[in-house]
Write a structure and sequence with these properties.
This protein is an alpha/beta fold. The protein is built from 18 helices and 27 strands. An 8-stranded antiparallel sheet has the order 3-2-4-1-10-9-11-15, covered by helices on one side. It has a 7-stranded antiparallel sheet with strand order 5-6-7-8-12-13-14. It binds 5-amino-5-deoxy-1-O-phosphono-D-mannitol. 5-amino-5-deoxy-1-O-phosphono-D-mannitol binds next to helix 9.
Length: about 600
């Protein structure tokens, strides 16, 4: 899961490529590189590590050219390092290629190419594509790519330029990972993600799987399966480039945490009629009859989106009375899930490109389910494969740790649950919508207490382990709190349903272990208080999160964080925000790379 960009036009190509790559660094940052065509030659500069190292290397080296490609890498084949960094050339120096994805039959192809005399200088599968294309290159780059693609197995997107082309041209292929073309006046672009293009153009073309595109400065042309010339629709993006900037915050994550009141509101705006008490979607594309026929729902997701799915199960079962199963995308495809007629599979994904989620959705579809996608990225893979889409309107999420996408997913799931409730003829109570309207303000209130969370982080930033406990609809929030802490601060943290503590994790408790306990609402409050007592009785440190008077918990907790009270079904949206902030301030105090934590990437487009 790497980031790829390309440009042809009159502008200075190197600064443009670097600027675009900066917006894709969330996709990987093990190494970076650019290639430009300059005076008929291909010139490549690469550097190990983050983009700044490449930018420093490029300074003063006078690399200029008429068009080029750039890449930021998340290593799959071959260790991170310059040798395996992209762009990669073929063994005869005729072309340069950037790639995102995995070529599954690369060893077989490498053996074949070696036998034909091709040499390899890296450990990557990318170099196999470069040599393969070169082996077919006979004056026509597009034709060579088309032949090479017929030999490739796997999921990949790549772009290639040749030192032998008479005119400026880039040939790009999409078969799995995303690839989008940006259209300009006398210039054209390509990138893994539209956020890399927003500063330059808003008119984009999303390539479909199997598409091969040929770009020149004045024209883009696309062939489906490399055979049939097709006109893919031009989509005008309404994302404001400023939305994608840090907006004065030190980190994208902190900005995105602060975006949440707006993102929540944007996600329910236009879908809720507060006067008539109803919910509707413009892009659901499933008829009332189809919705009424839904007998069971499969929620499929990974990571933070999977935590949203767990909350979704509570919401849909309680509000609409439809049974819900929740699966990890990575597990669903490897079991034999029972899918019956009338089942609806809902893929939940910020990026819409997570390979495991996409595959799970394919599995559900192949077994007869209708598909729905809850997604933040317009035109992404999950949205295009689905019968209907509910977009979360969180805006671009750049921080690797998901925050506003998560709370927006919870809102989308709440709306879906209410919509299903309507369709199955259950009564729509006014308070179900009124609580929604109060939510942005409640989250905003949490954000006025930053010093609180920073102070808490100061006290516990040196802890080695954390336990997060929650019950009922807040059990997934305990999981999400623990995930946020571990992914950005690198502190080991476990989330657990509080009632399960006595079946094992209780053995961990001693005076060094902080336990974050979510004790909001009425249904399980007393049970949670009991769990806190159990921790205190074993000398553990209790950090309680509550919507009650803190006095009610001072006898069982060392620290009490108060949050605004909303309805029990929406309380998870408020509860997760202090946990995001605590993780953020802890990571800042520990000096980690908050927006691009080690070993992670924003979209995981490999299995
Ligand atoms: O784009 P997706 O929502 O499909 O991504 C799923 C996970 O990779 C993602 O939520 C991941 O767990 C985040 N790093 C969590 O902060």
């Amino acid at each position: 899961m790497c980031g790829i960009v390309g440009y042809l036009g009159d502008r200075e190509v190197v600064p443009l490529l670097i600027d675009s790559l900066r917006r894709l660094e969330y996709r990987g940052y093990d190494s970076a590189g650019v290639v430009v065509r300059s005076n008929g030659e291909l010139k490549t500069i690469k550097a190990e590590g983050k983009l700044d190292r490449l930018a420093a290397k490029l300074e003063g080296c006078g690399l200029v050219g008429s068009y080029g490609l750039g890449h930021t890498r998340w290593a799959t084949h071959g260790v991170p390092g310059e040798r395996n960094a992209h762009p990669l050339s073929d063994g005869r120096g005729r072309l340069a290629l950037i790639h995102n994805g995995i070529i599954e039959n690369f060893l077989e192809l490498k053996t074949r190419l070696r036998a034909d005399g091709w040499e390899f200088a890296s450990d990557t599968d990318t170099e196999v594509i470069a040599n393969l294309v070169s082996s077919y290159l006979d004056g026509n780059l597009f034709e060579a790519v088309r032949k090479a693609v017929a030999d490739l197995e796997g999921m990949y997107a790549f772009a290639v330029i040749s030192g032998e082309s008479d005119e400026a041209e880039i040939v790009a292929v999409r078969n799995g990972p995303p690839l989008v073309l940006g259209l300009g006046e006398g210039e054209n672009f390509l990138a893994s993600d539209p956020s890399a293009l927003l500063a330059h153009t808003r008119d984009v073309v999303f390539l479909e799987n199997g598409d091969i595109a040929r770009l020149s400065p004045k024209k883009v042309a696309v062939w489906s399966q490399g055979e049939t010339r097709v006109e893919r629709p031009v989509v005008r993006l309404n994302w404001d480039p400023i939305q994608a900037e840090k907006g004065g915050f030190k980190h994208f994550m902190l900005k995105e945490i602060h975006d949440q009141p707006q993102a929540i509101q944007d996600t329910f705006a236009g879908r809720v009629d507060f006067e008539s008490g109803s919910v509707g979607f413009d892009t659901l594309e499933l008829s009332s009859t189809e919705i009424q026929a839904v007998r069971r729902i499969h929620l499929l997701a990974c990571g933070t989106s999977w935590h949203a799915a767990l909350v979704g199960k509570f919401l849909i079962e309680e509000l609409a009375g439809i049974p819900v199963e929740v699966d990890y995308g990575s597990e669903y495809r490897y079991r034999r899930p029972l899918v019956a007629e009338g089942d609806l599979a809902v893929g939940i994904s910020q990026s819409g490109e997570t390979a495991d989620t996409v595959s799970a959705m394919e599995t559900a579809r192949d077994r007869g389910a209708r598909l729905l996608s809850i997604c933040n990225v317009v035109g992404s893979q999950t949205t295009r494969m689905s019968d209907g889409v509910i977009y979360t309107h969180a805006g671009p999420e750049i921080g690797v740790a998901s925050t506003k996408a998560f709370t927006s997913q919870l809102i989308a799931l709440y709306l879906l649950a209410l919509y299903l409730r309507q369709q199955v003829g259950r009564e729509m109570k006014a308070e179900l919508l009124d609580d929604l309207a109060r939510l942005p303000a409640a989250v905003g209130e949490v954000l006025t207490r930053l010093d609180h969370y920073d102070e808490l982080a100061r006290r516990y930033a040196e802890a080695q382990d954390f336990l997060y406990l929650g019950r009922g609809i807040n059990y997934p929030i305990a999981l999400e709190g623990a995930l946020k802490l571990k992914e950005i601060s690198y502190i080991h943290a476990e989330g657990y349903p509080a009632g399960e503590m006595k079946h094992g994790p209780i053995a961990l408790i001693d005076r060094h272990l902080p336990v974050v306990a979510i004790a909001t609402g009425r249904r399980v409050f007393e049970k949670m208080r009991g769990n806190m007592q159990e921790v205190r009785a074993r000398d553990g440190i209790v950090i309680a999160l509550t919507d009650r008077d803190p006095e009610e918990l001072t006898s069982v907790a060392d620290e009490v964080l108060q949050v605004p009270r909303v309805s029990e079904l929406l309380q998870p949206v408020v509860n997760v925000v202090p946990l995001q902030l605590f993780a953020y301030f802890t990571a800042v105090r520990r000096g980690t790379d908050v927006d691009q934590p080690r070993n992670l990437a924003k979209s995981v487009t490999v299995e």
